[in-house]
Amino acid sequence: MAKTRIESLPEDCVVHVLSFTSPRDACRSSAVSSFFREAADSDLTWRKFLPADYAEIISRSVRDMEFSSMKDLFLKLSSTPLLIDGGRKTFSIDKYTNKKCYMLSTKELSIAWATNNLNWCRKPLLQSRFPESVELIMVNWLEIHGSIDSGLLSTNTTYSAYLVFQVADRAFGLGTLPSEVTVEVGDYKARGSVYIKLGDDKLCLRGDGWLEVELGEFHNNGNGGCQNEVKMWLKEVKGVHLKGGLLVEGIEIRPKR
After folding, report:
1. What is the band of 126 on the pLDDT scale with cuts at 50, 70, 90?
2. CATH of the domain at 32
3. Residue 1 is assigned to a structural domain of this protein
């Protein structure tokens, strides 16, 4: 069978073109012909879809990560979060945008009264991606704060931050007053409010069985290599009533779609 004009091109030219598409397009093009399959499955193509510092990131993994190709690595990082930094964070890649995603465990968060076992307790949960989550026993001052260096994130990307949690059957006092949510980066600050109670339209059920609520969004432009601390809060400190039954997994930072 005679070659098409495209098949007469050097493979590296086709790889270069495919690198400007998406992983989904690369997978689709591999079904066109054996020529396209070789280019679409090549390490050169899929390395373009990975962050430039992917090797440094996977070197921080809690467990050795095995992969047979750059495509295999991308598919694993976009389907299963990688536990890094001693189990304090997870890293993944958004399969639609190729952008970086992180989740901060509760050990990376500042939680008011979390060191008092009468107020909070650490416990392993089967459905958690981390060794431990925390459960709110009883407080009247609820405040959860997290932060991440913007330099760890993908540039020229709009991100949203989410508190990931569950509400225990025995929960009480969480939805009496709205909780304030805030995201702050440099001079930029986004504020809102949400009721932490089942049925609130701002709470979403995730694919992993946890609930999430958006804390706010921000744009990481990365101009001039300038890095800022991204600060994220949820707090309900105005009420004097007691609150309990909140199980916290962490704060996730992922590209906004």
Report:
1. confident
2. 1.20.1280
3. no
